[in-house]
């Protein structure tokens, strides 16, 4: 991992480079699952605004309506932190921004960075990851983050032309065990082998774990559940008291 911004950022707009703005900081993932009390774009926008007030350098948001609401609110408030957008469609296999159509829609909704499934699994539209990235570049100026599950995923995503890789899908694709906390072993592998920003994401449940991930070389750390999902957080406390 070098100290310079990756060459894939050259010439991107807006300035400063969105990924450079994330370096060394906390990205808060503001998501609620279908059917939950907080599953409303207005609620997620308020959560995102609160996270920025707390010092988040970036926000990760799921769904077209949520992305539109958050980016509109940020523009009105003069907030310039990058918004990473994704579109979950389905629940199995490749479902994080699974097709080029999804990726273009996420970018057009206002996302600064588009997060897509960066695994080597077949994509629903039959396109390769490289073709998806190339197609997205034809339609938008958004950067591309590949949510990966293994080192081989990340290497393939790098070759496909993405701007950043994340450990997001570690433990969910069958290639690696699901660790209790962040997959620090995979993080170390990516930092050593991938000359792109490596984002630590997945099961970061405490400030100490976030710090450890950053010290291990992560470009930035994404935290979702432990900050923005009160149902799960409440369950942690209930379980502790019940025990």
Automatic annotation (TrEMBL):
> Per the UniProt record, which EC number(s) apply here?
5.1.3.9
Q: Which GO terms describe its molecular function?
A: N-acylglucosamine-6-phosphate 2-epimerase activity
Q: Which InterPro entries match?
A: Aldolase_TIM (IPR013785), NanE (IPR007260), RibuloseP-bd_barrel (IPR011060)
Instruction: Spell out the CDD domains in the cross-references.
Output: NanE
Superkingdom of source: Bacteria
Supply the Gene3D superfamilies for this chain. Answer: Aldolase class I
Query: Pfam families, per this entry?
Result: NanE
> Which pathway is recorded for this entry?
Amino-sugar metabolism; N-acetylneuraminate degradation; D-fructose 6-phosphate from N-acetylneuraminate: step 3/5
> What's the protein here called?
Putative N-acetylmannosamine-6-phosphate 2-epimerase
Q: Which organism is it from?
A: Oerskovia douganii
């Amino acid at each position: 991992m070098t100290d310079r911004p990756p060459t894939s950022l050259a010439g991107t707009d807006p300035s400063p480079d969105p990924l450079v703005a994330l370096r060394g900081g906390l990205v808060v993932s503001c998501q609620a699952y279908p059917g939950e009390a907080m599953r409303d774009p207005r609620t997620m926008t308020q959560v995102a605004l609160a996270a920025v007030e707390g010092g988040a350098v970036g926000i990760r948001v799921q769904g077209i309506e949520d992305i539109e609401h958050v980016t509109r609110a940020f523009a009105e408030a003069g907030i310039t932190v990058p918004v990473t957008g994704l579109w979950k469609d389905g629940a199995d296999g490749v479902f994080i921004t699974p097709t080029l159509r999804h990726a273009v829609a996420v970018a057009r909704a206002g996302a600064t960075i588009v997060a897509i499934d960066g695994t080597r699994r077949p994509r629903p539209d039959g396109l390769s990851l490289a073709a998806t990235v190339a197609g997205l570049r034809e339609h938008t100026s958004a950067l591309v983050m590949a949510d990966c599950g293994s080192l081989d995923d990340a290497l393939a995503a790098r070759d496909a032309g993405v701007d950043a890789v994340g450990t997001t899908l570690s433990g969910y694709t069958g290639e690696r065990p699901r660790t209790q906390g962040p997959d620090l072993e995979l993080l170390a592998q990516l930092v050593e082998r991938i000359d792109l920003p490596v984002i630590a994401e997945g099961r970061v449940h405490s400030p100490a774990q976030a710090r450890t991930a950053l010290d291990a070389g992560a470009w930035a750390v994404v935290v979702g559940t432990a900050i923005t999902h009160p149902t799960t957080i409440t369950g942690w406390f209930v379980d502790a008291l019940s025990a």
